[in-house]
Amino acid sequence: MAELKTTPGEQDARAFVAAIPDEGRRRDAGVIMELMARATGQPPVMWGSSIVGFGYYHYAYASGREGDTMAVGFSPRKAATTVYVVDGFDGYRDLLDRLGPHSTGKACLYLTRLDDVDLTALEELVRRSYAATR
Fold first, then answer.
1. Is 97 inside a domain boundary?
2. Average pLDDT for residues 90-116, to the nearest whole number?
3. Residue 1 lies in a domain
4. In the chain, what is the straight-line distance between the N-terminal and C-terminal CA atoms, in Å?
5. Do the domain assignments include residue 31?
6. What's 107's domain CATH number?
7. Which of 57, 45, 67 lies closest to 107, judged by CA?
8. Most-buried pick from 7, 37, 92, 109 (CB within 10 A)?
């Protein structure tokens, strides 16, 4: 079985965010990191080399494969900040409608600029998603 590449590491999440070269992306990452810490009550932990995660989620598939991942997290990518929610977006339509400009994948929320986002809606989405994985 393949070994997971995205696992918790020793790198300091705050130092990672402080070292983001783009000022706007660094500012957005700092805001999201504090928002997620508040919403989850968990400290930021680096998962792999570029994802900041909060809390743990144990998954098990019918195939027998199982493991641990972060309950929620984000990555300040070049094109957009990616917010990871393990439980996907079913049941969050009310918050997504309020959120502002975004796009979604199965469990990824893509935010280009945090200035255009309703942070109250984002924090509630993170809070609900975290609670659903506990």
1. yes
2. 93
3. no
4. 27
5. yes
6. 3.90.1150.200
7. 57
8. 109
| Of 98, 103, 106, residue with least CA distance to 122 | 98
Task: Give me the number of domains the chain comprises.
Answer: 1
Q: How many whole angstroms separate alpha carbon 97 and alpha carbon 47?
A: 29
In a domain, 2, yes or no: no
Q: Is the pTM of this model over 0.85?
A: yes
Torsion sign across C-alpha atoms 22, 130, 117, 119: negative
For residues 117 and 111, is the Cβ–Cβ distance under 8 A? yes
**Which contiguous run of DSSP H or E holds residue 95?**
helix 93-99
Cα dihedral 5, 40, 102, 20, rounded to 10, equals: -60
Q: What confidence tens digit (pLDDT) does each residue in 43-98 have?
A: 999 998 899 999 987 777 788 777 778 899 999 998 899 999 988 899 899 999 99
Give the pLDDT score at 10: 77
